[in-house]
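Researcher: Go.
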Amino acid sequence: MERLQKAMAEAGVASRRASEKLIVEGHVKVNGKLVTELGTKVSSSDQVTVDGVPLEREQPEYYLLNKPRGVITSAHDEHGRKTVVDILKEGGVTARIYPVGRLDYDTTGVLLLTNDGALANKLMHPSFEIEKTYVAKVKGLISNHDLEQLRHGVVIDGKKTKEAKPKLLSVDKQHRVSIVRLTIHEGRYHQVKKMFKAVGHPVEKLTRESDGILNLKGLPGGQWRELKMDEINALKKL
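Model: Structure:
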């Protein structure tokens, strides 16, 4: 038995919070009976409908994508631009998957996609503070003072960031650019770009190397693979 909103989220109807709203507003029936209480539990034998449409309980699927530049991190785009879900569909994935978290249009790297709504909500919740590591090509020559500022936190959008782990990888004095690896455990909007801008080094190119236990090892840009069972189990234990 599991909570109704969790079953809905895992079936890809909506996020758990959005599913709760559907229940409260009277859109959901269990075995033909209208249900509006959030404590309701269902089993695999119960028939659940949302606005008359039966709930299709898909088997959970998990994919890791090395997101390329110029692709939208979304299940669909109203302007017809290519999305990360399109990439997997072109490779034969038919499940109703969606990305966990976001990467900007021009940012590359690690991105998890799944139809496991419960896990997705867990991983995106800020209380878990999952470490994410980025490699940024930035304008200018990064100084030790700049790195210390990043390490101890900078103010963006009126709020100081939490401590981070920056590491200078290389500098190109001729072209006046630096390559920096930065590990953070927050998920604020455009956080990495704003942090570097706050210390005077706008980002020219950005890649997410890792997200928690997931990394890009053996996965070229634009390619994807299914998660291994030990990876799935590790994510669920976070």
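Model: The domain at 62-126+214-236 is CATH 3.30.70.580 (Alpha-Beta Plaits).
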